[in-house]
């Protein structure tokens, strides 16, 4: 059968751009390797600026590290936003690596206290990681489930994506059923003038259960950390013994 040769120039320019704007980054890069025509079009600012702003909405509002966004271009073949996207992707990969190193600083680390994982969450917030950054760099099955969970807490607290968006990412990354132990120590209640023993609550939960609301109490505890009646919170990969901590330790959190 003879092959049918198709000329891109036979399509209206706005239709061609519509095709390009419907593609994800990886598909856009693949299409750009087809010909010189597609390489120039798939690198144009009109396609890459929306991709940049969609991936990093926090950077779309704030100027990160005094880096100026590319100026509006009248030249249709300008590729400044693509270059800027690649630079920012590498920068975010480096920042995520810092978080991973912090959490896994000890090869024997099996658990994290509230002060530690919440510090990692706030560090990610200061770095202004986007949802795709978390999915690419932290939602990995070969990483510790503690890092998966930290990425989840960050998304819920600072990015506020839809639950369906998080669950879709979990399915793509194959971490929905990853299990983590969450334990917290609560101050004993008073009854008839006597304070009861401090209570230890221990739950083994999947990441998907935390997102869907099946473990809403666990999520509340994780987000609040040590506050009011909660004396200690820790996350672990195995069922560790949760013991009371000293008052000085509590104050540090």
From TrEMBL:
<dbReference type="Pfam" id="PF12937">
    <property type="entry name" value="F-box-like"/>
</dbReference>
<protein>
    <recommendedName>
        <fullName>F-box domain-containing protein</fullName>
    </recommendedName>
</protein>
<dbReference type="InterPro" id="IPR039588">
    <property type="entry name" value="FBXO4"/>
</dbReference>
<feature type="domain" description="F-box">
    <location>
        <begin position="5"/>
        <end position="51"/>
    </location>
</feature>
<dbReference type="InterPro" id="IPR036047">
    <property type="entry name" value="F-box-like_dom_sf"/>
</dbReference>
<dbReference type="InterPro" id="IPR001810">
    <property type="entry name" value="F-box_dom"/>
</dbReference>
